[in-house]
């Protein structure tokens, strides 16, 4: 069987999970890629994978591809004895939020909802979906498990690992948002994405974070552009970071062009010379178009590793891989949401990652 591969970003995530293994639910278990990733996670002693799907189909695919299923749990939601309990619990949730007009039991047997109920009630820690279900369907399901029903906002985070950038720019891993949901975010949505993505990056990387809110303008360099929205979002995000007491851990700047955010030379030319500023870890795009085009273009580079999407704003860690995702992408994404389920003080008992 093929061996799993890691890089300078995912290797520490794997080590974290070896110390703190998590239960990861894969909603599309009838897929050779998913079965192989589950087997890798067991092989690396990083997680207890749970595959949702028909047991006979999953076993047949595993046998055809010579994939061991040792310690891989398989659940058929429609036949699970937990369905009545999940029905009762989801009914209660829907009544609380004022949405009791649906057939809850028909939802529970759907894999994405079954996985959600498993995480909400302590049977699993994180969910990986998307390989067999479209993004729109996953987002619709996730909306039922929002953290805040009064001010709901979901957004997607992508992680790009670009090895050749490490030597040239001093940074190789970038967290980008919003990569999937909101075409033109409001000022409040941009600020929220910046704050939450920065906190997510800090959780995974274990060190201080530099966040750039991107535009085609740097600090008003192109006055004919409608950059006021980004400028206002920067001020709001900075205020939120101060309010949460994270201003020593997270620095948010903007509006700024992407080359100045990444390159020390471009920053010195466009903003000001600085010997202490670190290249940005987090890139917040002004529109979904900008984020999507940039991500897809970079993905055409053979050396770029792309992980996600990670859906932010719901009650449990949820990743949405694409239907075209490679095994390496699914594996890396699983490591990410597994780490998301680990408490920060367990990951970094000394306060920061060991390499910093």
Automatic annotation (TrEMBL):
Gene3D superfamilies: 3.40.50.10950, Isocitrate/Isopropylmalate dehydrogenase-like. It comes from the Bacteria. The keyword Ligase does not apply. Keywords: Acyltransferase, Transferase. GO terms for molecular function: phosphate acetyltransferase activity. Residues 9-336 form the Phosphate acetyl/butaryl transferase domain. The keyword ATP-binding does not apply. It catalyses: acetyl-CoA + phosphate = acetyl phosphate + CoA. Belongs to the phosphate acetyltransferase and butyryltransferase family. This is Phosphate acetyl/butaryl transferase. It comes from Akkermansia glycaniphila.
